[in-house]
Each structure stands twice: as structure tokens, then as C-alpha cells.
Automatic annotation (TrEMBL):
SUPFAM superfamilies: Protein kinase-like (PK-like) (SSF56112)
Organism of provenance: Canariomyces notabilis
Domain of life: Eukaryota
InterPro entries for the chain: AGP_Transferase, Aminoglycoside_PTrfase, Kinase-like_dom_sf
Name of protein: Aminoglycoside phosphotransferase domain-containing protein
Signal peptide start-end: none
UniProt domain Aminoglycoside phosphotransferase: residue ranges: 15-244
PANTHER family recorded: AMINOGLYCOSIDE PHOSPHOTRANSFERASE DOMAIN-CONTAINING PROTEIN, AMINOGLYCOSIDE PHOSPHOTRANSFERASE-RELATED-RELATED
Length: 289
């Protein structure tokens, strides 16, 4: 594994900058100058086709990725990627978890929610074709994780798992939209304008996949603290059914993200988190509301 000084030298060589800086957030393996230089292990590889699909759907919010080959002699292997620097700060640094806000702060949060809603709308209006066998594989993978949860009731209450597990096949049915899913739509991977909270970038698409719409909606819940799916009138039962399925998908996505330990690439593993994990307590509280 190359040390810090070797990574610094590689970043200077690729970017042409005289000085480079290791960023705190997002991504401790990235360097930010006019160009972001990222060193990635094979598990965290950026799939060029997924990045291009994300660009086609979300436009300039997704940075173009260039590949520069492996780091010579690195063990484990490291691939070098570069992308243009996007303006803004991470949601982790921008969003407050306060209940009482002044008018200016509230307006900024409303702006963020609107932009996040547009992200989900773009995904909804660009459904992707997924072969039946691939949908079946995705379904089986998630069902196996729910079986682990059911066998460990101390992690999540059995009623929650029992309620959601039967809903899984409907989410992978042919009539339910499968959409581009970021895979780690966390507060560190969403960049916002510091003054307005307008979303300026969505980065790190290494876990991107095509999954049922709604599997990332927990981001809307967990970054805003509240989302009401009960308001409004519906023209027919189908719209109400889709909303209900999307809400269930959001709960399933949150469980997969926070009830399991992470692999080296950041994806959920087959190992449950410890009973006392902070993320688990947060998840339990949210699912109980």
C-alpha cells in the first residue's frame, strides 16, 4: 500500500498542481484541488457505464470520471481516478439537526428538500430495463438478509421484518419501476451550496445499481427528519399503491443500509451490526415512528 507521500506525489503528477490536500469530507481517499484524485481498491471501483448513466439522468450534478490505471506495486491494488472538483460543501457540514429554525434557515432547508425531490423525480421518469433473472437475483440477495434479521430479533423487532419481507417480491415485479440507485446517498456524498442549500453535486457512484424505486427514499427521511406520505388526494387506487410501495421500499433500503456491517467497498455485508451500534438505535427509532 503506498504511503501518504507517494499518494501526494501521484496526485501532483496527475493534476499538475504544486500543492495537494487530503480532504476530510467527503472521502478520506480523495485529494481536492481543481481536480479530485481518488485512489480506490478493486471493491470500490467506479463503473464507467453507471457513471455515464448517472450523468445522462442527473446532468452536471454528476462529475465526469477519468481512469488513470493502477498504482505501480500497490498491494492491495489501487486504481487511480480523477474527476473535476464540484463546488459546495457536504450535507454533513451544512444541515443542522435543529427543530426550531429562523425564516432564512427554514428557506434553505426547503430549497434542499426541493432539490432532493427533483433527484428522485429524475430517477422515476427514467426507469431502466432489468432482465427477469437479474431482478430475481437482487430479490434473493435481499431476502437472504431479511432471513438473517428474522433470526436475530434483538437487532430489529420481528413485526417490522415480518411486515416488510412479504412486500419484497412486489418491488421486483415487472410492473414496478427499477431505477438508477446511488447505493450510498449519504450526507457526505451530497454537496450543497453553503448559502442556499441548493444541491451542487452528487459524488461517489461506486455502489450504483438498478434497484426498485424508493430504496433510497430513506435519505429524504433521515436528512430532513420527517416526511408525510398521507397528505393529498389521489385520482385512483394505483397512485396510492405506488406511494405505499415506495414507502415500504424506503424502509427496506434503510434496513439494508444500517442494520448490516459494511464491506470494504461500503456495500452491506451479510453480517449484522452490533446491538449497541449508534446507527441501529437511529434506525430503530425511525422505524417505530
Amino acid at each position: 500500500m503506498p504511503d501518504q507521500s507517494q499518494c501526494d506525489q501521484i496526485a501532483r503528477s496527475i493534476s499538475g498542481a504544486s500543492n495537494v490536500y487530503n480532504v476530510d469530507t467527503p472521502g478520506s481517499m480523495s485529494y481536492t484541488v481543481g481536480t479530485v484524485v481518488s485512489f480506490r481498491e478493486p471493491q470500490a471501483h467506479l463503473d464507467q457505464s453507471m457513471v455515464e448513466l448517472a450523468q445522462a439522468i442527473h446532468g452536471p450534478l454528476v462529475p465526469k470520471v477519468s481512469q488513470h490505471g493502477p498504482v505501480d506495486g500497490a498491494d492491495p491494488p489501487l486504481a487511480i481516478h480523477t474527476m473535476p472538483y464540484l463546488p459546495g460543501i457536504s450535507c454533513l457540514d451544512a444541515l443542522d439537526c435543529q427543530v426550531d429554525m429562523d425564516d432564512v434557515t427554514e428557506a434553505k432547508h426547503v430549497c434542499f428538500v426541493r432539490h432532493l425531490a427533483r433527484y428522485f423525480a429524475r430517477c422515476w421518469f427514467k426507469p431502466q430495463h432489468v432482465a427477469a433473472e437479474v431482478r430475481a437475483e437482487n430479490l434473493n440477495r435481499i431476502q437472504s438478509r431479511f432471513a438473517l434479521l428474522k433470526a436475530s430479533p434483538s437487532i430489529l423487532s420481528t413485526p417490522v421484518v415480518s411486515e416488510l419481507a412479504p412486500r419484497l417480491p412486489a418491488l421486483f415485479a415487472q410492473e414496478y419501476p427499477q431505477v438508477l440507485t446511488h447505493g450510498d446517498l449519504s450526507r457526505t456524498n451530497i454537496l450543497v451550496d453553503e448559502d442556499t442549500f441548493e444541491i451542487t453535486g452528487i459524488i461517489d457512484w461506486s455502489l450504483a445499481a438498478i434497484l426498485p424505486f424508493g430504496m433510497e427514499l430513506d435519505t429524504l427521511y433521515l436528512t430532513t427528519g420527517y416526511m408525510n406520505l398521507d397528505d393529498g388526494d389521489y385520482d385512483d387506487g394505483r397512485r396510492a399503491k405506488i406511494r405505499d410501495m415506495a414507502e415500504q421500499a424506503a424502509r427496506i433500503g434503510a434496513i439494508l443500509r444500517y442494520a448490516f456491517q459494511r464491506n470494504a467497498d461500503g456495500s452491506p455485508s451479510e453480517t449484522l451490526v452490533d446491538d449497541g451500534a449508534v446507527t441501529l438505535r437511529y434506525l430503530q427509532a425511525w422505524l417505530a415512528t
